[in-house]
Known about the structure:
- By secondary structure, the protein is mainly beta.
- It has helices spanning about 5-15, 395-400, 420-430, 455-465, 480-495, 515-520, 540-555, and strands spanning about 25, 30-35, 40-50, 50-60, 75-80, 85-90, 100-105, 110-115, 120-130, 150, 155-160, 170-175, 180-190, 200-205, 210-215, 220-225, 230-240, 245-255, 275, 280-285, 300-305, 310-315, 325, 340, 345-355, 355-365, 370-380.
Amino acid sequence: MKKWVILALVLFSFTMPIPKVQAASWQQGDIIKGYYSENVYGTYTLSLEEDARVKFTLTDGVNDYRGYSSPNEYYVIIFDSNDQRIGIISTNLDDGDNLRTVQYINLKKGTYHIKVGYGLMGDYEVTYEASPIEGTDVEPNNENSTANLYTLGNTYSGVLYGLGILSDNDTYKVEIPTFGKLRVRLQETEGMSLRYSEFKLEAANEKNGKIFSFRSTGKPSEIFVLLQPGIYYFKISLHYSNTPTNNYTFTTSFDPLVEKDWESGRNIDEANADLLENNKTYNGFLLGGNYSYVQDWDYFKFTLTKNSRVTFIANSKREGFGSLIFLDETGSQLSSGGYVTSDTDKIIETKELSSGTYYVVYIPRYGNNSYEEYNLTMRIQRFTDVPAMHPYYEQIEALAQLGINKGYTDGTFHPTEAIKRKHVFALLSRVDGLKLPKLRTMKEFKDVTTMHPNYPEIKAFYEAGIIDGSGLYMSPDSDLTRAQLAKILVNTFDLKMKGEGIEFSDINSTNGLYKYVQILASNGITLGYNGKFMPNDTVTRQHFSVFLQRTLQMIR
Length: 556
């Protein structure tokens, strides 16, 4: 009889209720012999006092129901104490031994119910031996409650039983310690053939919420996914099989990530959309391919308090690019420009939007059979002369969000205008948490009286020893040079040398401001240009924003 016919009979017979039969105790080394028919099975009880690797030996060639002394197929089916099937051993002539079939299974200590036979009739002869556990797949592990513990980064091997027990699966309990990117690789064990079978790995969190799943057919398959910290369960099962034993290996690697720089991995729809903040870049991560059953789109949400000109910048970190969809508060696609795509690895889309709440949805590129990484930035234009694609928008806007850059009353910022000394002190005084110790008493300057609009700031910086002026003059309306700014920043924020500086060709140690320039360079606050620092060049408002923003990022 063809094996697929027998398989159908086994599936049918062991999904029907089996009459209760008094089970005989089966001891290690005992040879159990018997005869089974459609309604009569050999029924035994096997007890283990400790976890063990159990070796089952089935004698091949026992007479079948026709009375012929010919190779006959029968099955040893193992049930746990709750009568859940956890393993199956079948006689096998493909193993090169025509006299016996030997198969191993790791079992946890406890009592197991054994049934021998299948839906026809014939004789059987079986024995078992117990030895110490080998490997990581220990049955029963079909449910979360019986899952084996898995350690990230390790390679585990296991066996799934494909004949008459398609519900067999191996479950592993995995702890994700922090937010990060997980790589999971699943494949059949080297040297075996799945034939027409497929392994399937499905992951769920503690609340049984499905996170991802994928299949492996004949060759290694892997998946990358973002996960929040917590406990997860990986269930490995067979999609289908006509092979008695199906051996697999799976391994993982995990990269911790800074969560604030990434989308959450939970933003699967409008209700769970991540908040999209102005001038902040979010790294995104999505899967593609017909083998992956996971989050398809990433949702982001933002709210405008007034009508605004908004630019969205998206960059793909891998080959090709997907699309952006723009939705209104109801989740409906915008009638104009609601769907934007690109043939390159970048999308830049500017929209004039009314006040209200909106969604931006990222869709991976069509035909992507792997994972896709991207980043997404939203830029709201604050100053009329600093558009979203201005080379220093990021730094200017970052300081504006901190209340440092306020611009002019007409809505402009004047980014290329030389910054005045008085404005430098006014801007620095707005840095949250800035503490300026009083080391001396303010003296009189002819060009800075107590009536000067910036007198309080100039007084604080003078008394802290950060500025000295020149004789009786402070020169508040003078332009500031790059070298002078270096001294002010170093003294204001008490910066120290941090590693090596940068030797610039246009300033050396004979310059009284050299050490301040080197301190900035050693902290990555200045890089110069073509090997020069240009110490005597005036500082523009946009370049001051760059210097100050880098300084604040470094000290915080």
